[in-house]
Amino acid sequence: MSQSKFMKCGHTANAHTTNKDGKTIEICCLCSGNPDAKIEVPPPDLTGRKACCDHCRKLVDSNFEHLAFFEYRPSKDTDRYYCGCMGWD
């Protein structure tokens, strides 16, 4: 996966699976039970939006390509992501 794809569930594609036709497709493993986790959509305009780490509350500019576990939340004041503050293991 060279470039992150934005999925209808609000996350970026972060895993892949094989569909019934044998084709490998990108999905969101966080929402794998949700049909929207398999549907690629055009990314939203994130200009001026902020993302907040769920654990330490660090606030950064929203960016679906460079923030781990980024989730676009259009109905909220901030998007969410994970900054790594609790470790990666």
Question: What brief labels describe this structure?
Answer:
89 residues; mainly beta; 2 domains; two-stranded antiparallel sheet; 0% helix
Overview of this structure, please?
0% of the residues lie in helices and 20% in strands. A hairpin with a 5-residue loop joins strand 3 (50-53) and strand 4. The relative contact order is 0.21. It has 2 domains: 1-43, no CATH class; 45-89, no CATH class. The chain contains no helices and 5 strands. The chain has a 3-stranded mixed sheet, with no helix packed on it. The protein is mostly beta strands and 89 residues long. The radius of gyration is 13 Å and the shape is globular.
- Write down the overall mean pLDDT: 91
Structural class: mainly beta
Between the first and last Cα atoms, what is the distance in angstroms? 22 Å
Give the overall shape. Answer: globular
Number of domains: 2
Strand order of the largest sheet: 4-3-5
Strand content: 15-25%
Strand count: 5
Low-pLDDT sequence parts: none
Q: Write down the secondary-structure element order.
A: EEEEE
Number of helices: 0
- Biggest pleated-sheet summary: 3 strands, mixed
- What share of the residues lie within helices? under 10%
Rg over CA atoms, rounded to whole Å, is 13 Å
